[in-house]
């Protein structure tokens, strides 16, 4: 077996881990190829947040076998930890490797000589932290600094798939950040399952980490991915507001605007705290981008409680939201709750929030027109335009100029196009670096 291809489902954390595992294969003598090519081994890194992710995994397996019927197909990730026997029964799957085994994959593949193999330690035995960061796109990288979760929310399988909370150390994170900087990458996105819980059990804290990272030379931007509202402390907000490198962009899971449903979900805050965090951010950084996660149709959610969620989000000074329909997941406490919401009603409520998100995003973008912000341009080119993000996550397009690729450039935000992207005023370009 000489070539290997990867396919990743799910979150930024999965992408960082796939990249780290691909580097292990390269160091073991494999050639890493694109997934659409014929490969000797296909590695599918799975998510299991929704049933859709499970079904998509099966489709990817079929595609791998179509590309090379003689290939070995192995499954890793959350789905592999939660339902190993089910996955092993999928036609075309040769091996399943759980959370403890996926970082030893090149060595364990030697046992794929015939038949199917399954390595899946109990999740309580998964206690080690494995560092990872993504590569392959010079603009930004996802840097994993934390894994696992101790919260056990009623709807969530993540603690069952990834284990208890554990973190990298600050010296190790700083070393990786410097390695990333040496490769010319401009932006680092900090990722984790419960990012604000960084430091456990190393007697460090998230605020300690971001203060240390702010001094790393060679990185223009750090971006905080999703962080729980109770862990987004005033100290963290105040630090970001004065930092020259940490982006004024926060993604804060809400899940429900009803205190009754939040309690039923076993969340660790009430809406009053959430509102306080949003208001504190906007007071310190009026230009900040705030994103929200919300789950609709949780067991027991009445129409009135959904209306509470809708009006609560509508009245918050946020920029966008991700809305999800509640999905029944095995071995979660939510399965024991009464008051099942019909699937059609879940869909209708989610669509209402999606429309609200579009309105919020448009208002946020319009509020920044005729201002100048630095845009970090990517390599994506479509129809003669180049694309990138501002520090506060506004998606901007400008006429293609090869000199702008992977550059950080001041751009005057001029207008909205038909797709809702901001068009930059060409006359304002002035190369900053």
CA-based shape: globular
Q: Can you name the CATH architecture of the largest domain?
A: Alpha-Beta Horseshoe
Our estimate of the beta-strand percent is 15-25%
Give the biggest sheet.
Answer: 6 strands, parallel
State the end-to-end CA separation: 44 Å
Structural class: alpha/beta
- Alpha plus pi helix count: 13
Helix content: 25-40%
Which stretches are poorly predicted, pLDDT < 50 over at least 5 residues?
Answer: none
Count of individual domains: 3
What's the mean pLDDT score?
Answer: 93
In the CATH scheme, what's the topology name of the largest domain? pyruvate-formate lyase- activating enzyme
Broad CATH class of the largest domain: Alpha Beta
How many extended strands?
A: 20
Rg result: 22 Å
What is the fourth-level CATH superfamily of the largest domain? tm_1862 like domain
Main β-sheet, spatial strand arrangement = 2-1-3-4-5-6
Q: What does this protein look like?
A:
- There is one protein chain.
- The chain has 433 residues and is of the alpha/beta class.
- It is 32% helix and 24% strand.
- It folds into 3 domains: 3-125, 3-Layer(aba) Sandwich (Rossmann fold); 132-363, pyruvate-formate lyase- activating enzyme (Alpha-Beta Horseshoe), CATH 3.80.30; 372-428, OB fold (Dihydrolipoamide Acetyltransferase, E2P).
């Amino acid at each position: 077996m000489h070539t290997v291809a990867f396919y990743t489902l799910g979150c930024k954390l999965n992408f960082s881990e796939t990249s780290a595992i691909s580097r292990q294969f390269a160091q073991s003598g494999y050639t890493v190829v694109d997934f659409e090519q014929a490969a000797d081994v296909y590695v599918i890194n799975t998510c299991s947040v929704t049933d859709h992710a499970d079904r998509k995994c099966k489709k990817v397996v079929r595609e791998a076998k179509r590309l090379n019927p003689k290939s070995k197909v192995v499954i890793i990730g959350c789905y592999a930890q939660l339902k190993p026997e089910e996955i092993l029964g999928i036609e075309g799957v040769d091996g399943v490797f759980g959370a403890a085994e996926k970082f030893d994959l090149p060595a364990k593949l030697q046992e794929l000589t015939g038949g199917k193999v399954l390595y899946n330690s109990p999740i309580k035995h998964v206690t080690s932290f494995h560092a990872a960061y993504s590569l392959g796109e010079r603009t930004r990288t996802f840097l994993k600094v934390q894994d696992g979760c101790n919260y056990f929310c009623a709807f969530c399988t993540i603690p069952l798939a990834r284990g208890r909370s554990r973190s990298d150390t600050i010296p190790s994170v700083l070393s990786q950040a410097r390695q990333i900087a040496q490769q010319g990458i401009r932006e680092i996105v900090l990722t984790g399952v419960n990012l604000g819980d960084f430091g456990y059990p190393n007697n460090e804290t998230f605020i300690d980490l971001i203060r240390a990272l702010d001094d790393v030379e060679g990185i223009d931007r750090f971006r905080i991915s999703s962080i729980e509202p109770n862990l987004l402390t005033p100290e963290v907000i105040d630090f970001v507001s004065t930092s020259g490198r940490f982006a004024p962009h926060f993604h804060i899971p809400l899940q429900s605007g009803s205190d009754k449903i939040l309690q039923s979900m076993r969340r660790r805050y009430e809406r009053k705290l959430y509102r306080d965090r949003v208001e504190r951010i906007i007071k310190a950084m009026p230009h900040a981008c705030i994103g929200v996660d919300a789950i609709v149709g949780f067991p027991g959610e009445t129409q009135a409680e959904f209306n509470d969620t809708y009006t609560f989000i509508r009245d918050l000074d946020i920029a966008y939201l991700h809305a999800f329909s509640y999905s029944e997941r095995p071995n979660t406490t939510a399965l024991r709750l009464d008051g099942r919401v019909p699937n059609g009603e879940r869909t209708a409520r989610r669509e209402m929030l999606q429309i609200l998100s579009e309105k919020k995003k448009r208002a946020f973008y319009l509020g920044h027109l005729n201002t100048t912000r630095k845009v970090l341009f990517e390599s994506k080119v479509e129809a003669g335009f180049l694309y990138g993000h501002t520090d506060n996550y506004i998606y901007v397009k400008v006429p293609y100029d090869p000199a702008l690729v992977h550059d950080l450039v001041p751009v005057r935000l001029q207008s909205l196009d038909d797709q809702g992207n901001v068009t930059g005023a060409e006359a304002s370009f002035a190369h900053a670096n």
